[in-house]
Amino acid sequence: MRNTRGLAALIFTLLFSTSLFAEYLYQDDVVQKESFAEAINPIGKELYEKTGVSLYLVMRRELENNQSIAEYALSIAQSMPQPAVVVAFSEEPKQVQIIASPSSMYDEFDREMILSPNASFIGAVISSLMFAQSFDDVKEEMSNYGGVVLPVLAERAKGKDVIEKYAVAMFGGYSETAEQIADTRGVSLESAAGNINQIGVDVVRYIFYGTILFAIFGYFRGRRRARIREAKEKEELNNEQ
């Protein structure tokens, strides 16, 4: 009987230790790599130890009953010891959101910046030139940059690279959220990505926009050449007549 209780206690301890290690990567049926968990969990653990804030990452392949990722993340955040923040991603439908409970936690990080489609100020300028339809749109685009999630998710990838893209994007969003919360509370995180991750995102974004600008330049150059060719053909036809 005593041996049975000892074995049960050992199993419980092992299971409890495993759950503690995995609790900040709360759900993941998308990336499913040990290296990903090993990158996420130390950040969550250090943030909790220094601030008392629990930051969870949720990666879902799909959602049920037409539920949005925001609704799903909110249900998790409200069920956790407070305060809690959930960075959540779903592949089908493709959605990303950051949900906090209580709502006062939104004052401790910039959700709009983290989830901005623009990684840098240059990206914001280009977006405003390409997509803004009014001066107000331009001002909004110009003030909305610093994103570390959507710029990566927007990049093209095939095969196994798709999963890597998801991992990089959500690691960036999770790490940036953790660092902002820590900074608000006057502490620093040794395990977070810092500016290295932002630099990587910026480089990817510059390449992305550079490709778009090159395509636009090629399109207008082609149209200009076509107009010149049509004008010459019309002139030659008039000369023959």
Your description of this structure?
With 241 residues, the protein is α/β, with parallel strands linked by helices. It has one domain (21-236): Diaminopimelate Epimerase, Chain A, domain 1 (Roll). It contains 9 helices and 4 strands. The protein has a 4-stranded mixed β-sheet with strand order 1-2-3-4. Helix 2 (34-51) links the parallel strand 1 and strand 2. Helix 2 runs parallel beside helix 8 (160-184) and helix 5 packs antiparallel against helix 6 (135-143). The chain is elongated and about 85 Å long. The termini are far apart. The model is unreliable at 1-21, 120-132 and 195-209 (pLDDT under 50).
Key features of this structure:
alpha/beta; Diaminopimelate Epimerase, Chain A, domain 1; 241 residues; 62% helix; disordered N terminus; four-stranded mixed β-sheet
Record the SSE blueprint.
Elements: H1 2-22, E1 25-28, H2 34-51, E2 54-62, H3 69-79, E3 84-92, E4 95-101, H4 111-114, H5 121-131, H6 135-143, H7 150-153, H8 160-184, H9 195-240
